[in-house]
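hey can u check if this looks right to u? its 365 residues, i copy pasted from the old doc so theres a chance i mangled smth
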Amino acid sequence: MDAARTRRWFLFALPAAGFAAELPGKGRILSSVARRYADPATEFPVTRLTDPAHNGFLPAPYNRAVARRSNFLLYSTDATGHMEAFRLDLKNGQSRQLTESVELDPASLTLVGDGTFYYVDGNRVLSAPLSHLRPREVYRIPEGFDPGTGFSVAEDGQYAAIVEKKGAHHRIQLIHTASGEATTLAEADEELRDPIPRPRRASVLYRRAGGVWLVNHDGAQNYRLKLADGETGPAEWSPDGRSVIYLNYPADPHQLHNLREFVPDTNEEKQIANTSQFVQFGMNADGSVFVGASGSKASPDVLLLVRSVRRELTLAEHRAKNASLVAPIFAPNSQRIFFQSDRDGKPAIYTMSVEKFVEETDGGR
């Protein structure tokens, strides 16, 4: 490791010095609490970025948490006594408070470009520039409805998708972010969740009744995808929007959880690779490498899976009580991963360098 990088890691891993309370609320700076350690199983270096004395959460895995230049991370924590959004500088470990919320949904945070972020606060969808943090109300959930599970924004920022519910009734609203107008894409008297706009195409993926569904922006062609037999786990769009990548849990418990791919335009469906019982996954910017969280009680690990050779590399133990919490993701340049775990107390965010194992990408989506 060169001298400059050694100095960067030294500064990054300095212990907390409390709050640098230059501002009392929005704009407040929290000192670095980063702690670096060698993983007990692999001896690879891992850095815990947030304090496990407080709850710290990444956004939903399908929302963008890391800047395209991979220099900062969007996350939420209640370290100030109330759940708020923060921007964590990945060079010095400091966090800047971005919101003064009423009821922030931590999963809803997402970056559009590197200058604007969106989030759900109570019954409002808000956006704010990182430069001055003055929020704009994009949309307000109508009276009588509550927010459901899931909010995301298209990569170009023109549309957002949100789940609303009234009792058992659920609906997915497509919001035009410039005007605030909303169109109902799907509704049912059962849970709808996790809407994800399709990159470069006018449709939205979502979950319903254990299945994965696809609907056009005009509400037409709303149908369930014909995926492999067994239980369907997490599902996301490939970086180019051509296919849906998802985890399949076979009905036979002796069979391995496997990553699969479905192409909606051709109905082509195939296996990518078996896994070490992944229950969550992320992919790098060109879809060539996956990072997964194993649900195995014997080996509660975070692993890399290289698509071309279908081989895995164990990176570290996550030791989360619920492996679904781990939700690992790549930085856009594919040189770093991030994941969550409550191994040290409350949920905290961890990071590892994978530059020795994964080629650098140009920033991707």
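Residues 141-224 form one domain.
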